[in-house]
Write a structure and sequence with these properties.
The complex is a heterotetramer of chains A (697), B (437), C (214) and D (128).
Chain A (H helix, E strand, L loop, with lengths): L13 H5 L11 H4 L3 H5 L3 H31 L8 H36 L7 H20 L27 H29 L12 H33 L13 H34 L6 H14 L15 H13 L1 H15 L8 H24 L1 H7 L3 H31 L5 H27 L16 H34 L39 H6 E3 L5 E3 L3 H4 L16 H18 L4 H17 L18 H4 L15 H27 L1
Antiparallel strand pairs in A: 1-2
Helix pairs in contact in A: 4-5, 4-6, 4-17, 5-6, 5-7, 5-9, 5-15, 6-7, 6-20, 7-8, 7-20, 7-23, 8-9, 8-10, 8-23, 9-12, 9-13, 9-15, 10-12, 12-13, 13-15, 13-16, 15-16, 16-17, 20-21, 20-23, 21-23
Chain C lengths: L30 H27 L12 H4 L2 H26 L3 H31 L8 H30 L10 H27 L4
Helix pairs in contact in C: 1-5, 1-6, 3-4, 3-6, 4-5, 5-6
Chain D lengths: L21 H23 L1 H8 L1 H23 L7 H24 L20
The chains are: A mainly alpha (697), B alpha+beta (437), C mainly alpha (214), D mainly alpha (128).
The complex binds heme-A (2 copies), dinuclear copper ion and copper (II) ion.
Chain lengths: 697, 437, 214, 128
């Protein structure tokens, strides 16, 4: 009943699968993966994860370049590199880019790639929606950054307080791009959250109870819940802002009696859970890396899970610590001060449990481990300065100074980003089939960690010396020169360190190719969780057969047992236990054009809202077209490599199964959901039009 | 030794250095905005003493975490890249330890919170301490020291209301005219707790004098929850707007000048009067105010004339703009421009970034004032364009296209508006350096 | 009842050589259904933000209008009627689902169309209310109250409209393939969405229209 | 979502037969209609009640009725009562979170749930 042409089943058609004795790796065999179109239409969670990572890296270079501009401007007093106007755009776009287009999608990259694998699932619950999330995010990010080409980026700071964000005070279109761009990326996060929660809750194989899920998966489940509930809050705030700016609503119009604190509350109700959205994936990575390289199980698994859940939960009750000086009443201030402080308790549990995991272990300090241990100490610095902010009276001196800038770079760079780098080094062989070079990796690490401390360490001092944030210059007389210069030097050391990462990727890849592409094996680190139980790079279908899970750290327990003295003994090698990825008879979800098309319609509509409502018409048509096409496209290409019913279906064992409508395996089900899912997406974007037409007229 | 050990060593040393850096952070500065040294107000001082404790807690916790990491690295790292099959350290029993490190931090934090509450209450309570002042025509008032602080892009206005005005209940637009209005510079009596009513006319700003107390946002449409400052010694205290407020946020500064009671009284008396002009010019102004159209004679009258035609639509200068109702709200988004009556008594202008009096020579800063009048944006970034096609209002001081002659005249006129306040006759002490360039 | 008959202990990804996958999941329900509920629970925060914004500005109506308080504006009998219509559409929705589950496609279709029709009446009522309001001087940009009110009810209206499209889409999309009981999950999901939109209105009706101020 | 839930537990598998019949759906709808009528009635006679019992009682009554209607639709029309408990948990977590968070937010605005909003009481900014 397809009313739209069925997409080509590249790489997943009969031929592609059945003529290969080894199914495709994710990116390693371009010859066999077919053309670049494959990437545009893929619904494979691994490819999507990798694309998330590449896109995030791309934006990281942009955001990093902006950071370097900031640092050059501030290296000396009365810097003149950037005009005040440009400076304001640069730091705003730096913040927005780094938070929404680097740290969040990088988390999504790891989650997408690893969450199904760690569960032992074949894909996420809704592969096409997954592709949609990615494209929506990418186009949203490009849209946001395209503001530079259309008269300048947003200039209101990343939290963009009203009423400075109104047309009167920011007449350029930068903030329209901000509002609509973040709206779009929000759609991506929301769709992703629904998808991944469903996956983690509902797609676990037999035996994989919640309390056997790896901590990485657990932390990301928490993250997805945070997204699920936080995104709508910022959505509304952004809608209100958009309506104020484009259609003369009065949400933040103080002349009409509006209260500007409304924006602050809504933003931070989202914003604080957001910071835990940024950090928890990294906590998850560290919790995977440290046990492997300590050769010990994680210390206190259930406490680690519980503290992660507790952080996620408490994160909802602390938002007003960003508003201690906004003039909310003293009782609120005291209450939020209290709640904020106590987040240090579950976070401390994590830090100390990691230390206890290391303690007494057999520590292999390779690059992944170095980065992970780096997180433990660097995040602690940031967390501790966070505790000094949580003391509301003290925060009245600190807030909006570089002391805050120091805090959040320590937690974000020292926590989130270092964690991601740890993850790169750790999972690279699983993703791409070769290890990254250790020597270059260590150079990367040391440059990064030294540069990072040289950059952001001095900012503590600057802040306490009274240097305000978001200032484009400072005078020589205030005593800020020395440390600002040091910080700038540090920023370039970081840049060098990160350059080493890129060099490392290129060099390692070349070495690997030169060496004839040796396979690192399924389990290069003697690791513990299920993603290591299949070939490297991960075959398209993930696992050859279903894994029945019997314990936490299932893979490890298949490799090792205990002798009568309760000493650990090896009972099997990784190669014996792991699956070789040779199964060719696995049902795969089929690629689709509609996710990318649907995603593409959103920036078009957004340009239309800003520049000319006429453009909304083709945008809207594209949206409707792709939604309809999506719904009527069979999620499974009948030509794809799989047998349905016809060969050897032993229905009796399984009870009476309905024919359709309840086909629950991956790739099967998003038909109905998208009617709603896409409806919701459409709604979010389209409703500004409908909305104002309904109300204006 | 594995090959990465030397770099590890370096790292450890580096981290130790880093810790040391933080510990000595406090010694780094004697800058005007420093939150930790040269504190002159009891609030700022209490915050700092608490901060010192807090920082020590963080140093200790961090040192602990770092020490364990380093010690673990020292003791437990293995050489080479691969494990022997029999190397399986046992896990420590965890429940007991987990309870320890749930409870210990919680106890520390309970302690911190108790002191936080105390300090919080101290900062948010206010005491009654009326002081008696002679205002206007020798009338004596009991003034409960309360100053209205109004932020706008990109300068601060301070209003002193000596009458019986309920400040907290009104929006800034509906407040009656203040008895004294200053810009950029708040003058307060020493040793007295001053209550601040902080608000804004356009976007959110934040008022911050680090030596005296923490900051408080100026939110349009809201009166801040009460905030206060107090200076225990005379002096000039710098401040900076700390909530991002647009283009010239970095150039939105202010000063508090704390004067001993007697000097404060003198200052008040002087501020309650208009500018002192020569009798002829005064008569000329009176004539103009009554609707006369006499042509100006001499520099002073020419300056008055220029001010009345070019400046008075936004600025007030008591004694010069008599008879003119200035309507800044028609020309400016913020709806306010500084009252220039006592321009000369200030130490800074242009949002606190340029000195009125040259700190080296003590002379009136004619050059920069002239520059400002010729082209304000060259000193402080402004939006030079109107808001939009249908809204012609501006943000910041426009370029009025004044001739060199007019600029000179105006500078001369502004120089007549007063001399900086003094403490024991020593005005130099109060002219602190500020400003770009 | 087929939709939930799932064998115990069935797992997700059985790919035995000859096997048909088990269509079963950890919680024994379809992914679609769980996803729908997740979406709805996330929508609670969406509407929560809109409702709180309205509450914050709810007395701020006098600015630029001849009204002193919201009670002067609302036409309660009219709104009660349209609320009633929406509530009854929930009934027709469950009846549709129940018919589809009985494999009674004909009645299923009728009830679905009735539901959509009732939804349209509700939307019509809302459009009418908006027209009246704007004729009385309550435009979108008049004051904070109007902005908040129109945005809240407008968002709800958009939700209802999307629901109507989904209902009509379900009817249209099953013309060829039939609305047999294998489609009951589709109908169920549409129904969940529809009922949610209904309960949001239950809240809006009480909190915005009925609860007196003062 | 409970941590202890194992994937194998499927709670209400045999509960399906308890699904309400069409007849009971109609009865439920009638009940809802009656509740709505009571709500409107309360609104109409609000002044009388307010005189004797205070405005607060009208509000409490209306809110209680709202909750009951909400619950009925959720439990029966949306099947929460008969479906797997996990769905109820997921939905309730969003609902409760929304109510709690926005309640706290409005309280921080000194929004008084039992009296007016704050904006007509002069300037915002105060103690809570
Ligand atoms: C990854 C992101 C991330 C994380 C994880 C955190 C974690 C924390 N943050 Fe941070 N924060 C940000 C990102 C983050 N923050 C950002 C981006 C901003 C600024 C936004 C802006 O203004 O632009 C900000 C701003 C910010 C403020 C507002 C400052 C201001 O503007 O005035 C406050 C105030 O309380 C705060 C507090 C905290 C606290 C208490 C934690 C806690 O979770 C930290 C807990 C961790 C520890 C405490 C360390 C480990 C614990 C132990 C070893 C146990 C022993 C400890 C003790 C006994 C104390 N943060
Ligand atoms: C994920 C979050 C994240 C990350 C990773 C960073 C990374 C960095 N940040 Fe940023 N920052 C924020 C989030 C982040 N920041 C936020 C939210 C704000 C607040 C904004 C606001 O106030 O609104 C902020 C604000 C902020 C300020 C304050 C601006 C102000 O208040 O005026 C400064 C100042 O130094 C700064 C510096 C840096 C530096 C030097 C880095 C470095 O670590 C960057 C290192 C990366 C690179 C250098 C890129 C590497 C690229 C290459 C190696 C390729 C080479 C390419 C070229 C040189 C073109 N950041
Ligand atoms: Cu005013 Cu920043
Ligand atoms: Cu926070």
């Amino acid at each position: 009943m397809a009313i739209v042409e069925r997409p080509l089943a590249i790489g997943a058609g009969d031929d592609a699968i059945e003529t290969n004795d080894r199914p495709l790796g994710s990116v390693t065999r371009p010859k066999e993966t077919g053309s670049w179109k494959d990437w545009l239409t893929t619904v494979d969670h691994k490819k999507i994860g990798i694309m998330y990572g590449v896109a995030a890296m791309f934006f990281f270079v942009i955001g990093g370049a902006e950071a370097l501009l900031i640092r050059i401007q501030l290296a000396t007093p009365n810097g003149t590199l950037l005009s005040p106007d440009v400076y304001n755009q640069v730091f705003t776009m730096h913040g927005v880019t780094m938070i929404f287009l680097v740290a969040m999608p990088m988390g999504a990259a790891f989650t997408n790639y690893l969450l199904p694998l760690q569960l032992g699932a074949r894909d996420v619950a809704f592969p096409r929606l997954n592709a949609l999330s990615f494209w929506v995010f990418l186009f949203g990010g490009l849209f946001l950054n395209s503001a530079w080409l259309f008269g300048g980026g947003a200039d209101g700071g990343w939290f963009n307080y009203a009423p400075n964000s109104s047309v009167t005070f920011s007449p350029s279109h930068g903030i329209d791009f901000y509002a609509l761009g973040l709206q779009i990326t929000g759609v991506a996060s929301l769709v992703g959250a629904i998808n991944l929660i469903t996956t983690a809750l509902n797609m676990r194989p037999k035996g994989m109870t919640l309390m056997r899920m790896p901590i990485f998966t657990w932390m990301n489940l928490v993250v997805q819940f945070l997204l699920l509930f936080a995104v709508p809050v910022i959505s509304i705030a952004l809608f209100q802002l958009t309506f104020d700016r484009l259609f003369d609503a009065n949400f933040f119009n103080t002349e009409a009696g509006a209260d500007p604190l409304l924006w602050q509350h809504l933003f931070w109700i989202f914003g604080h859970p957001e910071v835990y959205i940024l950090i928890l994936p990294s906590f998850g990575i560290v919790s995977e890396v440290i046990p492997v390289f300590s050769r010990k199980p994680i210390f206190g698994y259930s406490f680690m899970v519980a503290s992660g859940v507790a952080i996620g939960f408490m994160g909802w009750g602390v938002w007003a610590h960003h508003m201690f000086v906004s003039g909310i009443g003293p009782i609120s201030v005291a209450a939020f001060s209290l709640s904020t402080m106590f987040i240090a308790v579950p976070t401390g549990v994590k830090i100390l449990n990691w230390l206890a995991t290391i303690w007494g272990g057999k520590l292999r300090f390779n690059t992944a481990m170095l980065f992970a241990v780096g997180v433990v100490s660097m995040f602690t610095i940031g967390g501790l300065s966070g505790v000094t902010h949580s003391v509301a009276p003290a925060d009245t001196q600190q807030t909006d100074t570089y002391y805050i800038v120091a805090h959040f770079h320590y937690v974000i760079f020292g926590g989130t980003l270092l964690g991601f780098f740890s993850g790169f080094y750790f999972w690279w062989p699983k993703m791409f089939g070769y290890k990254l070079n250790e020597k270059l990796g260590k150079t990367n690490f040391w440059l990064q960690i030294v540069g990072f401390n040289v950059t952001f360490g001095p900012m503590h001092i600057l802040g306490l010396q009274g240097m305000s944030r978001r200032i484009d210059t400072y005078d020589a007389g205030f005593g800020f020169e020395r440390w600002n210069f040091v910080a700038t030097v540090g920023a370039f050391i970081i840049a060098l360190g990160i350059a080493f990462f890129f060099v490392n990727v290129a060099v390692s890849r070349n070495q690997w190719i030169k060496a004839g592409r040796p396979n690192p094996g399924p389990d290069p680190w003697d690791a513990r969780s299920l993603e290591w139980m299949t070939a490297s790079p991960t075959p398209v279908h993930n696992f050859d057969e279903e894994i029945v899970v019997e314990s936490q750290d299932e893979f490890w327990h298949r490799k090792y047992g205990y002798d009568e003295n309760h000493n650990v003994v090896r009972i099997a090698t990784a190669a014996e236990v792991a699956q070789d990825g040779s199964n060719t008879n696995v049902h795969l979800p089929s690629p689709s054009y509609f996710p990318i098309l649907l995603a593409l319609s959103m920036p078009i509509i957004s340009y239309g809202l800003i520049y000319s409502l006429w453009l909304c018409i083709p945008g809207g048509m594209l949206m409707v077209y792709s939604m309809v096409g999506w719904i009527f496209e069979h999620p499974d290409d009948p030509n794809a490599a799989h047998d349905h019913h016809d060969d050897g279906h032993d229905g009796d064992d399984h009870g009476a199964l309905p024919d359709s409508g309840t086909e629950l395996e991956a790739g099967d089900g998003d038909e109905e959901l998208v009617a709603v899912g896409a409806g919701a997406v459409g709604e979010t974007v389209a409703s500004d039009v409908v909305e104002t037409e309904a109300t204006d007229g | 030794m594995t090959r990465f050990t030397p770099s590890m060593r370096k790292g450890v040393k580096f981290l130790a250095l880093l810790t040391a850096m933080f510990v000595f952070a406090a010694c780094a500065g004697d800058a005007e905005l420093d939150t930790r040294s040269n504190l002159a107000g009891p609030e700022a001082q209490s915050i700092e003493s608490f901060m010192r404790v807090l920082l020590w807690i963080t140093y200790i916790v961090f040192a602990f975490v770092l020490a364990i990491t380093v010690e673990a690295w020292r003791r437990f790292r293995i050489k080479g890249d691969d494990y022997e099959d029999d190397e399986f350290p046992a896990q420590i029993d965890h429940s007991k330890w987990e309870i320890v490190w749930t409870i210990v931090p919680a106890l520390i934090l309970v302690g911190v919170f108790v002191f936080t509450l105390g300090l919080h209450n101290q900062l948010n309570s206010s005491e009654e301490n009326p002081i008696s002042l002679v205002v206007g025509d020798g009338a004596n008032v009991e003034w409960e020291p309360e100053i209205v602080v109004v932020g706008q892009q990109w300068w601060w206005e301070y209003q002193y209301h000596f009458g019986d005005v309920e400040l907290t209940a009104q929006r800034i637009e509906t407040l009656p005219d203040a008895d004294i209005t200053t810009a950029t510079q708040m003058v307060i009596p020493v040793g007295t707790e001053i209550e601040l009513e902080i608000t804004s006319r356009d976007v959110i700003h934040s008022h911050w004098i680090p030596s005296l107390n923490g900051k408080r946002d100026a939110v349009p449409g809201r009166q801040s929850a009460p905030w206060k400052i107090q200076a225990d010694e005379p002096g000039v205290f710098f401040g900076q707007c700390t909530e991002f407020c647009g283009l010239s946020h970095s150039r939105m500064r202010m000063q508090v000048i704390a004067l001993p009671m007697a000097e404060f009284q003198e200052w008040v008396t002087a501020q309650m009067e208009g500018v002192e002009l020569s009798p002829e010019t005064a008569a000329y102004v009176a004539d103009l105010a009554a609707g006369g159209t006499t042509a100006p004679e001499g520099t002073e009258q020419r300056a008055v004339d220029t001010f009345r035609t070019k400046c008075a639509s936004c600025h007030v200068l008591d004694g010069v703009t008599n008879g003119i109702v200035s309507r800044p709200e028609e020309q400016l988004v913020s709806g306010a421009a500084p009252n220039l009556t006592h321009f000369g008594t200030r130490t800074t202008f242009a949002g606190g970034i340029v000195n009125v009096w040259d700190p080296d020579t003590g002379d009136f800063n004619r050059n920069q004032l002239g520059q400002w009048l010729r082209d304000p944006s060259s000193i402080k970034a402004n939006f030079t364009e109107p808001v939009s096609e249908d809204d012609a209002r501006l943000r910041g001081m426009p370029n009025l296209g004044l001739t060199a002659q007019e600029v000179d005249d105006l500078v001369g006129l502004l120089e007549m508006t007063g001399a900086p306040p003094t403490v024991d006759g020593d005005s130099e002490f109060l002219i602190s350096e500020t400003g770009v360039e | 009842m087929a939709s939930t008959t799932v064998p115990e202990a069935a797992a997700t990804v059985t790919h035995d050589d000859h096997g048909h996958e088990e269509h079963a999941t950890s919680y024994g329900m379809s992914n679609n259904k769980m996803a729908m509920w997740l979406f709805l629970s996330s929508d609670c925060l969406l509407f929560g933000a809109l409702i709180s914004t309205f509450l914050l500005y709810r007395t701020n109506i006098s600015d630029g209008t001849p009204f002193a308080e919201p009670a002067d504006v609302f036409d309660i009998p009219f709104t009660s009627l349209s609320s009633f219509v929406l509530l009854m559409s929930s009934l027709t929705m469950v009846l549709a689902l129940s018919a589809v589950k009985r494999d009674d496609a004909r009645n299923g279709r009728i009830w679905l169309l009735t539901t959509a029709f009732l939804g349209m009446i509700f939307i019509g009522g809302q459009v009418y209310e908006f027209t009246i309001f704007s004729a009385e001087g309550l435009q979108y940009s008049t004051n904070t109250w109007t902005s908040a009110f129109f945005t809240l009810t407008g968002f709800h209206g958009v939700h209802v409209s999307v629901g109507i499209l989904m209902l009509l889409g379900t009817v249209a999309g099953t013309r060829e393939s039939g609305l047999g009981k294998e489609k009951s999950e589709t109908v169920e999901l549409v129904g969940l969405y529809w009922h949610f939109v209904d309960i949001v209105w239950v809240i809006i009706f009480t909190v915005i229209y009925l609860i007196p101020i003062g | 979502m409970s941590v202890t839930e194992s994937p194998e537990t499927h709670h209400d598998h045999d509960a399906h037969d308890d699904h309400p019949s069409d007849r009971s759906y109609v009865m439920i709808a009638i009940g809802l209609a009656i509740l709505t009528a009571v709500e409107v009635l309360l609104f109409v006679i609000e002044d009388q009640i307010a005189d004797t019992l205070g405005v607060g009682s009208v509000k409490i009554a209306l809110i209680l009725l709202m909750i009951v209607k909400f619950w009925i639709v959720g439990a029966y029309f949306m099947h929460l009562k008969f479906d797997n408990l996990i769905l109820t948990k997921l939905f309730i977590s969003g609902l409760v979170l929304a109510v709690a968070v926005y309640f706290i937010m409005l309280s921080a605005f000194e929004f008084n749930f039992w009296n007016d909003g704050l904006l007509d009481q002069g300037l915002p900014g105060g103690i809570s």
